[in-house]
């Protein structure tokens, strides 16, 4: 699975995270790295430890398109090659022998994407709601202390909407003295493999088979990104990134159609999306926090041997089975689902199937109810 995950581009940070300071420590796929924005505006991602004496390059200084260690000024280019050792004699050739890990970084849609796999490097997928200019974007960030799989497979579990986000929400609202939300029951669920992952479909009791949630559905883009529509003008990508085996970052990437007359964004703002209060308590009435609560409380790495999967879990079972099949493909030297190499498929963007007219309202109220926490920034209000 480690080799499989390295077949893909992953967000390593939001571009806005480098605005206060151009160098920061990051961790991705179990590696400690230094991410930087060079003086020329380019980006670099190299191993954090300086090969000279081990100081952190995340404490280094940018120089042109490269980075220098703060300790003795050794300079590395974006590929990790040492190009200058200023404390050494002029005739020294030691720099020619010094090479550390360096990975490609690309900015797209306000995120910095890194590729840490084998060559040749695949194309960075240009999914439409990440790159279409007529949409405003903002990015919520959550950092979870659990394995990425138990975060990602939440998408392939449509029935949890009915219980966690409806039944449990009403119980929590009752404890808080608030009125209940409307609830619905599922009539049918379905799952289909497609070119970029798995499509999840649902039909509610009382709906007909021509509803978009059943005829179109919405996808889990492999390896771990949910595409969730809230209405005809707002689509959210939930990008789950493995920091290591025991930590996951979620980027809640909101893409909303810009109102007529509004100027185009010049930057993509970021905001914290917490699942705990400052006192360390869960937030039972908040939709995103509910999801993260059940992800984290499964344990750092949940023990699947203790599970008892049922008929309602067939989407989760399909996801796990498909991931294992994809890992076998990678072991045979083949590209897995979701790896893009054909520029024609990537230009101008990749259109993805997603329903726009949902058959339910999670709050029966403004979507800000999903972020019902006094200190959280409400996504609808975030505009540059």
What are the key terms here?
single chain, 384 residues, alpha+beta, Rieske Iron-sulfur Protein, Naphthalene 1,2-dioxygenase Alpha Subunit, Chain A, domain 1, 2 domains, 4-stranded antiparallel beta sheet, 28% strand, disordered C terminus
Please characterize this protein's 3D structure.
The protein has 384 residues and is of the alpha+beta class. It has helices spanning 2-5, 128-131, 148-152, 160-175, 212-215, 287-296, 314-331; strands spanning 9-14, 23-28, 31-37, 43-47, 61-63, 66-68, 75-76, 82-84, 102-103, 105-108, 111-115, 135-144, 186-194, 197-204, 218-221, 225-231, 234-244, 247-257, 270-272. It folds into 2 domains: 2-115, Rieske [2Fe-2S] iron-sulphur domain (Rieske Iron-sulfur Protein, 3-layer Sandwich), CATH 2.102.10; 128-381, Naphthalene 1,2-dioxygenase Alpha Subunit, Chain A, domain 1, CATH 3.90.380. It contains 7 helices and 19 strands. An 8-stranded mixed sheet has the order 13-14-15-16-17-18-12-19. It is elongated and about 80 Å long.
């Amino acid at each position: 699975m480690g080799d499989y995950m390295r077949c893909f581009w992953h967000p390593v940070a939001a571009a806005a995270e480098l605005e206060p300071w151009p160098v920061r420590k990051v961790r991705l796929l179990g590696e400690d790295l230094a991410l930087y924005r060079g003086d020329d505006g380019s980006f670099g991602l190299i191993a954090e430890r300086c090969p000279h004496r081990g100081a952190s390059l995340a404490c280094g200084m940018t120089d042109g398109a490269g980075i220098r260690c703060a300790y003795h000024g050794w300079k590395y280019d974006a590929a990790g090659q040492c190009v200058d050792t200023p404390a050494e004699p002029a005739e020294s050739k030691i720099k020619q022998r010094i090479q550390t890990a360096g990975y490609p970084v690309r900015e797209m849609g306000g995120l910095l994407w890194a590729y840490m796999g084998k060559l040749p490097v695949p194309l960075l997928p240009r999914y439409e709601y990440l790159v279409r200019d007529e949409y405003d974007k903002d990015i919520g960030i959550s950092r979870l202390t659990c394995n990425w799989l138990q975060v990602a497979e939440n998408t392939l579990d449509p029935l949890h909407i009915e219980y966690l986000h409806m039944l449990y929400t009403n119980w929590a609202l009752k404890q808080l003295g608030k009125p209940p939300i409307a609830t619905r029951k599922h009539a049918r669920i379905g799952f289909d493999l497609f070119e970029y992952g798995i499509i999840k479909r649902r039909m509610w009791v009382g709906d007909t088979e021509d509803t978009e949630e059943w005829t179109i559905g919405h996808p889990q883009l492999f390896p771990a990104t949910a595409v969730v529509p809230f209405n005809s003008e707002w689509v959210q990508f939930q990008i789950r990134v493995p920091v290591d085996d025991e930590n996951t970052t979620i980027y809640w990437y909101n893409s909303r159609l810009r109102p007529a007359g509004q100027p185009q964004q010049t930057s993509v703002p970021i905001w914290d999306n917490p699942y705990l209060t400052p006192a360390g308590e869960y937030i039972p009435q908040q939709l995103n926090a509910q999801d993260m609560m059940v992800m984290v409380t499964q344990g750092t790495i949940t023990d699947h041997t203790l599970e008892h999967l049922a008929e309602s879990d067939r989407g989760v079972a399909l996801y796990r089975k498909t991931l294992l099949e994809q890992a076998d493909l990678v072991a045979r030297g083949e590209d897995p689902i979701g790896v893009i190499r054909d520029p024609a498929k990537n230009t101008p963007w990749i259109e993805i199937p997603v329903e726009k007219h949902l058959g339910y309202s999670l709050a029966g109220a403004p979507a800000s109810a999903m972020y019902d926490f006094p200190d959280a920034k409400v996504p609808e209000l975030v505009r540059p």
